Automatic annotation (TrEMBL):
The keyword Transmembrane helix applies. GO terms for cellular component: membrane. This is Taste receptor type 2. Its main location: membrane. The chain crosses the membrane at residues 6-31, 43-64, 76-103, 124-142, 176-200, 221-242, 254-277. Keywords: G-protein coupled receptor, Glycoprotein, Membrane, Receptor, Sensory transduction, Taste, Transducer, Transmembrane, Transmembrane helix. It comes from Cricetulus griseus. PANTHER family: TASTE RECEPTOR TYPE 2, TASTE RECEPTOR TYPE 2 MEMBER 1.
Length: 300
């Protein structure tokens, strides 16, 4: 058991380092652009806000693992559960709007509602972010009010064999939590499916046309793989968050540690994928790596 805890803790440390580095790069690059140009593009604003929430979420995942590894009584994590709920909810909403933004900009659908969104999505981004913050705050406050007297019982429950009483207490907060996760997930799934359908349709049309260029087809395949990876990571994060919320695993168990590990994969790995798929971020990442190598050579 101790060896398992050590393994999961080390993996979470790697997750934290990777996630902070990737998301920090996104924030720094966009901040420099803001200083130079005195304005920030809607996509950059959305990515910066998403990167901020992901760094905070990764830190809480690390703290949860650290508490378990150090055999603490989970007081820090228990007292911060409402804020963790807020950050996770906000992060999911921002990722959802990112998928909607990509769908509106890339997909070609002739429906009037889609065309209306396509024309206005850039102007809607700040309002979508503000609405997400207000929605996540409201849901977190309601959830926090319902669980204000529960945290100690909850975390004691993970070490107790008798879980009937705590599960009865948590029916309403659990419903609020599931509702908060499900709504953005449904919007995300619709946006991703529309985007995949549009890309598949476009690839088929290009394939039937004479003289189709291979690089163009390769670009669409790369975009498809990027979207599919986004979908898989997002959906996995959503499902594991639901499993954790049902309290089917004890807090110190290997199963719970594995769930927290999976939760931490999404905000770290997807940010790396975002950097690789964004020319500006990718170029700055290469410059950062070259700079680090040069500094290492100078010190050597």
């Amino acid at each position: 058991m101790v060896q398992g805890h050590i393994f999961f803790f080390l993996v979470v440390v790697v997750q934290l380092f990777t996630g902070v580095l990737a998301n920090g790069l996104i924030m720094v690059v966009n901040a420099i652009d803001l200083i130079i140009r005195r304005k920030m593009a809607p996509l950059d604003l959305l990515l910066s806000c998403l990167a901020t929430t992901r760094i905070i979420l990764l830190m809480f995942v690390f703290l949860a693992q650290l508490d378990i590894f150090c055999l603490e009584k989970y007081s820090l994590f228990a007292n911060s559960i409402a804020f963790v709920f807020f950050i996770n909810e906000l992060s999911l909403w921002l990722a959802t709007w990112l998928s909607v933004f990509y769908c509106a900009k890339i997909a070609t659908i002739s429906h009037p509602l889609f065309l209306w969104i396509k024309m206005r999505i850039s102007r809607l981004v700040p309002w979508l972010i503000l609405g997400s913050v207000l929605h996540a705050t409201t849901i977190a406050l309601i959830h926090g009010r319902e669980t204000s007297t529960i945290p100690k019982q909850v975390f004691t429950h993970y070490f107790s064999e008798n879980s009937t009483q705590v599960k009865q207490i948590h029916v309403l907060p659990l419903s609020i939590f599931i509702l908060g996760l499900t709504l953005p997930s449904l919007i995300f799934i619709v946006a991703v499916l529309l985007l995949i359908f549009s890309l598949c349709n476009h690839c088929w049309q290009m394939r039937t046309m004479a003289g189709t260029r291979e690089p163009s087809r390769h670009g669409h395949i790369s975009a498809m793989l990027s979207i599919l990876s986004f979908f898989i990571l997002y959906f996995t994060h959503y499902m594991v968050a639901l499993v954790v919320s049902t309290q089917v695993f004890h807090l110190g168990s290997i199963s719970f540690l594995f769930c927290t590990l999976v939760i931490g994969i999404y905000p770290s790995l997807h940010s790396v994928i975002l950097i690789l798929g964004n020319p500006k971020l990718k170029q700055n990442a290469k410059m950062f790596i070259v700079h680090c190598k040069c500094c290492h050579c100078v010190r050597a």
